[in-house]
UniProtKB/TrEMBL annotation:
Protein name as catalogued: Beta-xylanase
Entire protein: shown range: 59 to 373 of 379
Organism: Actinacidiphila rubida
Keywords carried by this UniProt record: Carbohydrate metabolism, Glycosidase, Hydrolase, Polysaccharide degradation, Signal, Xylan degradation
Family named by the database record: Belongs to the glycosyl hydrolase 10 (cellulase F) family.
Upper classification of the organism: Bacteria, Bacillati, Actinomycetota, Actinomycetes, Kitasatosporales
Entry's EC annotation: 3.2.1.8
Domain spans labelled GH10: 1-314
Length: 315
């Protein structure tokens, strides 16, 4: 049969998956599916701050390098994820009592070291991840708290200096449709670009739940970003449901996946559709959303689900 990556190629986009590095190294059928079905990959965890800089100024890119090598061997592009976030930070950073100047220097060093390490190997970088609250205000995390809102522009400038060819993204969730959060992000990106800040892409995560209808204005929302001259992508698609699921849940899941993909296909500079893991065997959902699961497009035994077929039909 055909594969998602073959269909995506004809559609002119990449189809990607987040990759669990332990499964990739330890389980042949997992690695086989990544290679066969996808044309881009995102490290699920191994490029995050706590993994790559476990002690201040000490870097460990071992697992990330392995994924980059895998991608190269299989003709895949890599989405770097991520450089700045409020989660998965090392404890030396979160518990250290740094002055604003020190923290700014730490961020500058981190972004420069990580982007420089992978220079030429990363297609798109998620530079800033989940910076907004749902009401459109900036998240009150240590970055905003100590550095003020200018940290966003700084992060993009530093990343661009370290690898001028990587496409630099801002990435967030609950920004699929037009709402307060996506509008605040739109205003920020517009303002930054007017100032010449190198923000070049908007990543729409796409973590959906069958309990809430998938927004049907995804393409409208993406069109306004498109008009700013930035790339867009669906970067972390999954559609969770309360277990046990029934046929209605499964149908709603298929539809939600299709709605996300169609948003991308209808947007001129949408470059890729990435799922946040492809198998129900390895998913962040059950660990975070109590009682929910079955969010992915293959089951625990790597059999394609109806959502897989639905995506293939739309590509
Ligand atoms: C998740 C991973 O899937 C988990 O393995 C990890 O424990 C926590 O982070 N938004 C993001 C991703 O941008 O980095 C998150 O990934 C899921 C939500």
């Amino acid at each position: 049969g055909t594969t998602l990556r073959a269909l995506a190629r004809k559609a002119g986009i990449r189809v990607g998956t987040a990759v669990n590095s332990d499964a990739l190294a330890g389980e042949a059928p997992y690695a086989q599916k990544v290679a066969d079905e996808f044309s881009s990959v995102t490290p699920e965890n191994v490029m995050k701050w706590d993994t790559v800089e476990p002690a201040r100024g000490t870097y460990d890119f071992t697992q990330a390098d392995q994924l980059v090598a895998f991608a190269k061997a299989h003709g895949q592009l890599v989405r770097g994820h991520n450089l700045l976030w409020h989660n998965q930070l090392p404890s030396w950073l979160t518990s250290g009592d740094f002055s604003a100047a020190e923290l700014r220097d730490i961020l500058h060093q981190h972004i420069t070291a990580e982007v420089a390490h992978f220079k030429g190997e990363i297609w798109q970088w998620d530079v800033v991840n989940e910076a907004f609250n749902d009401d459109g205000t900036l998240r009150d995390d240590l970055w905003l708290d100590k550095l003020g809102p200018g940290y966003v522009a700084d992060a993009f400038r530093w990343a661009h200096a370290a690898d001028p060819k990587a496409v630099l993204f801002i990435n967030d969730y609950n920004i699929e449709g037009v709402n307060a959060k996506s509008t605040a992000l739109y205003d920020l990106v517009k303002g930054l670009r007017a100032e010449g800040v190198p923000v070049q892409g908007v990543g729409i995560q796409g973590h959906l739940d069958v309990k809430y209808p998938a927004p049907h204005d995804i393409a409208d929302n993406m069109a306004r970003f498109d008009a700013l001259g930035v790339q867009t992508a669906i970067t972390e698609a999954d559609v969770r449901m309360t277990l046990p699921a029934d046929a209605t849940d499964v149908e709603a899941q298929d539809e939600a996946y299709q709605t996300l993909l169609q948003g991308c296909l209808l947007t001129r500079h949408c470059t890729d559709f990435t799922v946040w893991g492809f198998t129900d065997k390895y998913s962040w959902v059950p660990g975070v959303f109590t009682g929910e699961g079955q969010a992915n497009i293959f089951d625990e035994n790597y059999r394609p689900k109806s959502a897989y077929t639905a995506l293939g039909q739309d590509l």
